[in-house]
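User: Before I run my own analysis I want an independent prediction to cross-check against. Here's the chain; please return only the structure tokens and, at the end, one sentence I can use as a sanity check.
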Amino acid sequence: MRMNVRVRVVSKRPVAVDVVELTLSAVDESELPSWSAGAHIEVDLPGGVQRQYSLCGPAGDRDTYRIAVLRTPASRGGSRAVHEELAVDDVVTVSAPRNRFALESAPSYVFFAGGIGVTPLVPMAERCHQQSETWEFHYGGRTLERMAYASDLKDRYGERNVTLYPESETGFINIAAILKTAAPSALVYVCGPQPFIEAVRSEARAQGRGGQVRAELFTAEASLDAAGEREFDVHLVRSGITLRVAPDRSVLESIVAAGIDVERDCEVGICGTCITGVIEGCIDHRDHVLDDQQCQSGTSMTICVSRSLGDSLVLDL
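Assistant: Structure tokens:
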């Protein structure tokens, strides 16, 4: 069950073209729930819209939360509400932070940021800086004016750690060259649009680094074409029941409809909240969370979007 926190907008400022930063504090002035670099919160916005945003302030700050939101032309209400409706002193409800993109321990790090995907990586850079880690940060966007926190990153950490790639001036990030010169054991963190993430993953696989990539996708479209899907059975071991998953329903929807409460959040395969253990069966992975090694192991799946390649799955539920 989601833990809710009432917060007040204490500041709203532009941090790039079409990007605004909101600073939020608890209405009762209490400490906010703790968090770590890579965490996100879900915000209840005007009009009944719920959206997830990465925390981009100093990691662990419990006095305020900071989020940065890009205005998108095809907004279904989220970015429009933030940019046009929310104002200083407005009160909204947010979830406690969740982290499916945590910074793991490693000898060194390579960060790739694409556009507004920079936000969860900003606290990671600060943590690496504070702990004197070895790291490098590569940040690309359409123009420098549209790259949130670009000047802040460069000013704070310098050219040795941060390289900016405004496409209008430098072209695209040379992912292959960067990965070739990175330390063999470096973990690679990437966040941004799906094609950017896939480009990093693809190059990492080509260089034998597929298992070193950690990724977070900001948005995804749920794709379920019932005409092209098949029915299959899902046996829930701990619950002792078997369910039939129809072509027009996800595994998650079928389980919830049966009255079983499952922790869930985005429901489009980008947050990892509903990852579930798989005891038996072949998985049709469709999420943007599990890496290549996790998919190949066949021991877990995101039940909101992934399906079965066979007639049945046995889940640890």
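Sanity check: Residues 19 and 164 are 18 Å apart (CA to CA).
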